[in-house]
Amino acid sequence: MSCYKLCELQCCVRTTEHINNIACSYCYILNCQICIEGNIASGKTTCLEYFSKTSNIEVLTEPVSKWRNVRGHNPLGLMYQDPTRWGITLQTYIQLTMLDQHLSTISAPMRMMERSIYSAKYIFVENLYRSGKMPDVDFAVLSEWFEWITQNIAIPVDLIVYLQSSPQTCHERLKERCREEEKIIPLEYLEAIHQLYEDWLIKKTSFNVPAPVLVISADDDLQKMILQYEENREKILSGTNV
Ligand SMILES: Nc1ncnc2c1ncn2[C@@H]1O[C@H](COP(=O)(O)OP(=O)(O)O)[C@@H](O)[C@H]1O
Ligand SMILES: Cc1cn([C@H]2C[C@H](O)[C@@H](COP(=O)(O)O)O2)c(=O)[nH]c1=O
Questions:
Q1: Of the candidates 102, 115, 99, which has an alpha carbon nearest to the alpha carbon of residue 43?
Q2: With a 6 A CB cut-off, is 64 part of the ligand 2 pocket?
Q3: Domain 31-238 CATH class label
Q4: What ligand 2 atom has the least distance to the C-alpha of 39?
Q5: Helices (H) and strands (E) in the chain — how many of each?
Q6: What pairs with residue 34 in β-bridges?
Q7: What EC number(s) are associated with this protein in UniProt (predicted)?
Q8: Numbered residues of the known binding site
Q9: pLDDT digits (tens, 9 = 90+) for 131-147
Q10: Taking residues 89-118, what's their average pLDDT?
Q11: What does the DSSP 8-state code read for residue 106?
């Protein structure tokens, strides 16, 4: 991670330290940005809630409430009802809200964020496109936006924690959570998302992986998950997978 890039993001001005490319006060405060990745209902929010009790960690959950209500509209619900028509609408908004989270001022030495601008594009946009539910022109416009953003704005990620779960487990948990918009999600949808995650973060054959990956098996019950979080606490909080 370059402290210089982070400083620019935080301060938005070129201080003397920036000009001389040395660490300013922000460099000493900011240490680490961690993204928690995984399929729908794999346990990301639950994991973030657990770590939110640790001091010096800022937790950013996905802004799903915004995706369900932007000025009275529900792009998440619309997308599930008619992905071909509304996929671009939802994904454009998700890309914006993810960028906003990545760039928001950090209030603690460490930040844990649910998913990232990368998974929104490499997993969800890709899935809509590959399944024939996103028109070529929509995919092209979203890709142009994504490439411009990632080539022109520094989006620092130090570690990806991948909660690796079976699609069947996610399907069970999704039914239990019972979010209205997601009631129509079939197992096949979760299988497609799972495969895209595996290709990206495990096989590393599809897209650029922006940070080291720590894999945590997420099919276990809550008690066992907590044990795993404790076993991996040091790796996670040091922002490294070694
Ligand atoms: N390890 C677990 N075992 C059983 N149920 C879980 C576990 N982790 C989370 N859940 C439940 O599964 C549902 C989805 O979890 P959540 O953390 O919201 O997933 P995500 O944020 O990845 O979509 C919630 O109802 C949650 O209480
Ligand atoms: C990032 C992203 C998410 N979604 C959808 C998938 C789920 O229905 C919700 C997020 O819920 P989760 O429990 O946190 O997985 O949003 C999407 O359609 N596109 C995206 O890019």
A1: 115
A2: yes
A3: alpha beta
A4: 15
A5: 14, 5
A6: 112, 159
A7: 2.7.1.21, 2.7.1.74
A8: 38-46, 173-177
A9: 999 999 999 999 999 99
A10: 96
A11: P
Q: What percent of the chain has pLDDT over 90?
A: 81
pTM of the model: 0.90
- For position 70, what pLDDT does the model report? 98
Atom of ligand 1 nearest to the CA of 222: 1
Model ipTM over 0.95:
yes
Q: Which residues are annotated as a binding site for ATP?
A: 38-46, 173-177
Q: How far is the CA of 40 from the centre of ligand 2 (A)?
A: 6
Locate 152 and state its tokens.
């022109």
Q: Which long-range contacts (CB under 8 A, 24 or more apart) does 69-78 make?
A: 74/181, 76/181, 77/180, 77/181
How do the domains of the chain map onto residue ranges?
A: 1-30, 31-238
pLDDT value at 27 more than 60: no
Choosing from 49, 114, 182, 198, the catalytic residue is 114
Ligand with an atom nearest the CA of residue 217: 1
**46 token code pair:** 């639950």
Is residue 31 pLDDT above 70, yes or no?
no
Distances in Å between the Cα of 36 and the Cα atoms of 2, 24, 71, 184 are 21, 28, 28, 25
DSSP string across 144-178: HHHHHHHHHS-----EEEEEE--HHHHHHHHHHH-
